[in-house]
Design goal:
The complex is a heterodimer of chains A (about 120) and B (about 110).
Chain A (H helix, E strand, L loop, with lengths): L2 E5 L3 E2 L5 E8 L8 E6 L5 E7 L9 E3 L7 E6 L4 E6 L8 E8 L7 E4 L3 E5 L2
Parallel strand pairs in A: 2-11
Antiparallel strand pairs in A: 1-3, 3-8, 4-5, 4-9, 5-6, 7-8, 9-10, 9-11
Chain B lengths: L4 E2 L2 E4 L4 E7 L11 E5 L6 E5 L11 E6 L2 E7 L7 E9 L4 E4 L3 E5 L1
Parallel strand pairs in B: 2-10
Antiparallel strand pairs in B: 1-3, 3-7, 4-5, 4-8, 6-7, 8-9, 8-10
Chain lengths: ~120, ~110
């Protein structure tokens, strides 16, 4: 059974840093892309970042403009985990952060989602 | 302003057929498969369609289609448990980002 477990959310002050983790199980981790999607309180879903499966030891990485330069996505195939390193956090980064798996044949869609982890940025 | 446009709200009665739309451009819906995601607050999203394929465990009353730059999600035989927020999403090659619609609140009357 495919499972994605997100963790690392916490209350942090503006300007602070946090690292989110998403541990995957139940499938061959290295062959899938992964994504972080967030949802601010009372708002819709917002894509944050994506990391592809490794192609010739290279991962393709993309970021939303709202987090570019502040957030960094990475993966560790040996630990079957994806990470989101967040720095220079702002109040507007407050949200539930979900990790999602990209479909192996249709990479523009997500086929499984984790349960989410809450990040609160407040002084 | 989102790159994908969805109705803010749609309603229907039990057993009715309802269609949710997602309008985009040649850079997104016109070029890539669209995912549809159901979210019953306060839970995590769930994938109900990817492209025109039904994920395992999703009822066959869900279907999806695409015509040009508009994608549609149809629920044939609406059930009370279908009441949720529905989001469409795909890749945008012009912006080089994954884009989401703002979501449609589906109410079952």
């Amino acid at each position: 059974e495919v499972e994605l477990v997100a963790s690392g959310g916490d209350l942090v002050k503006p300007g602070g840093s946090l690292r989110l983790s998403c541990e995957a199980s139940g499938f061959t981790f290295s062959t899938y892309s992964f994504h972080w999607v967030r949802q601010a309180p009372g708002k819709g879903l917002e894509w944050v970042a994506s990391i592809s499966q490794s192609v010739d030891r290279t991962n393709f990485i993309y970021y939303a403009d709202s987090v570019k330069g502040r957030f960094s996505i990475s993966r560790d195939n040996a630990k079957t985990s994806v990470y989101l390193q967040m720095s220079s956090l702002r109040v507007e980064d407050t949200a539930v952060y979900y990790c999602a798996r990209g479909h192996d044949m249709v990479p523009t869609v997500f086929d499984h989602w984790g349960q989410g982890t809450l990040v609160s940025v407040s002084s | 302003q989102s790159a994908l446009t969805q109705e803010a709200s749609v309603s229907g009665t039990v057993g009715q057929k309802v269609t949710l739309s997602c309008s985009g451009s040649s850079n997104n819906i016109g070029s890539y498969a669209v995912g549809w995601y159901q979210q019953v607050s306060p839970g995590a999203p769930k994938t109900v369609m990817f492209g025109d394929s039904l994920p395992s465990g999703i009822p066959v009353r869900f279907s999806a289609s695409k015509s040009g730059t508009t994608a549609s999600l149809t629920i044939s035989g609406l059930q009370p448990e279908d009441e949720a927020d529905y989001y469409c999403s795909t890749w945008d090659s012009g912006l080089e980002v994954q884009v989401f619609g703002r979501g449609t609140r589906l109410t079952v009357l």
